[in-house]
Amino acid sequence: MILKHIIVPNLFITFLLLFLSITGLDPVIQPKDDHSKNLRKFIEAQRSILDNYFGVPDLNKMMESSIDYMVAELNDSTLQVGGTPIDTARVFTNITTLRESYEQFEQAYLYIANTIDSVNMYKITEEALRGMFATLDPHSVYIEPEVSAVDQENFAGKFQGIGVQFNIIQDTITVVSAIAGGPSDQLGIQSGDRIIEIEDSSAVGFDNDMVQKKLRGEKGTKVKVGIVRPGMDETLYFTITRDDIPIYTVDASYMLDDRTGYIKINRFAATTHDEFIAAMEELQTEGMNRLMLDLRGNPGGYLGQAVAIAEEFFPYRTPLLSTVSRHARFNQTYASRKDGIFQEKPVIVLVDEGSASASEIVSGALQDYDRALIVGRRTFGKGLVQQQYELVDTSMIRVTISRYLTPSGRLIQKPFTEGGGEDYAYEIYRRDDSAKNDAIEFVDHIPDSLKYTTKAGRTVYGGGGIVPDYIIEPDTSRSAYMINFALRKRASFDFVRDYLDQQGVEFRAEWEDDFESFRTDFSWSETELNSFKQLLQENGMIEKEGLVEPEFRNDSLYIYPGYFEEVAWMAEGRMKAELARQVWGLPYFYPIVNDVFDTTLKEAKKLWEAVDNLTKLAAGTLDSKTSGKM
Known about the structure:
6-stranded mixed sheet, alpha+beta, 2-enoyl-CoA Hydratase, Chain A, domain 1
């Protein structure tokens, strides 16, 4: 969980930098690197850890790991290590203050800078920081400036540019869709357009980074693009004024039936609550009186946004979350600040192993109060809160400042060991293939100290994510072979792009103003499906007699005769969803995908009676012993 960063002036750092300047550090070592900035960066990071980390950091382990990472980055077998400042065979036991830690790092830094020619000390410093953070929990991390900039954009909920989603197809920038309401959309740029010129220079052969650099820019600045549009002979020229482009966190919101609204949230960023409210209000005008909230694959985000979403389901002053830390300033209880707009209506929340952090805050609060039925698979298990701090070069560090507890007192953080980041992250892939068996295995080994009760007296569990009230197995059908192959080859995208090139005018005339009719009535012809099969064959799908199951070999997919025909419905569905995305935009992709592929959603739609029973149980009008499985 990320809180907005706070930059705290630090007198020690100021005095340290003054000391470095007075002592003439820069002339002593190689001038090509900004050594004072590198040293300041290291000390800023370490100070932030010491002042804010939820546990007690070990300065000696941090220093040893920092130096180990520096040496590993050098990858120089001739480098003398023994008896030098970078010799970590000596045991660090005497570092007790930040100043002592800095002095040890300074010696190691200077030794490397003065011993090795052409060493990039900026990269060495970054490795030292990674080593430092490797001694902490898996969610405390160093973030490079470039990644930090993208990260900030994603969680700010907007960036500045021309407002198109694009792919590079055969060395050409191809518009997938113009973002609704953005500057490109307002000028009439549409899916299928090829951007071949930028500022009167060829844009053919650009990679993604080059496109970003040329088309993104400050709000109010202009960029001229030349576009080739299918069906038109002449190049079209547009001068686009860049603007704020929203990055939406609500992927989809639509009615599943005449009563049930569906909202999918992909992460919790600065705009999530506003997007959620807008979606709720729109769905309520369409008759929604119960909600399917999809948090599957949602990795989390801002704590405040999670609380804001959760409080929409509860009365004023309902406790939703508490945070605990060794620093009293980070201990806090969060309660709903108003009466929620949906506090009395039925809710199902969909979760899976990719649901983490803020997703678990929302689903945990709803489960603890028996307010919603949690459906799907055991969640990731992240119960730690991070705060972000900016360093001198605009890089960032994310430091865990506290743990959070659900209303029943659950800490849902799964076990971790310092430095075990990879094992920790991949734990979800080592769970039992059966979601039910995974839940049973988890619950069977839970000590009594991690068992809690909901408002109605049901047992819930801490220590490893949220166990859903209803487990639904993932679809592991062998049919996925062909879809995975088609995605790798971008076959669905290419097929739909070519289809719109050839038949886009006719298609738009028939369907563009009536998506719901498209959703229920459109289908691909047998000729079009055969064309798609041929495209897959051109990309390496091979029919082979004697196979029992499809199999990948190098870059090819081998199938038995008749396999394509067995799973053609999947090809139809995926291409139809891609067609919706390219014509109407990303929010229209999900209804088609859900209609065709989402077995969890289909099962969850049958559980509203169980939600009613849960509501009665919470109200005390249903005996938990006779209510059946919740």
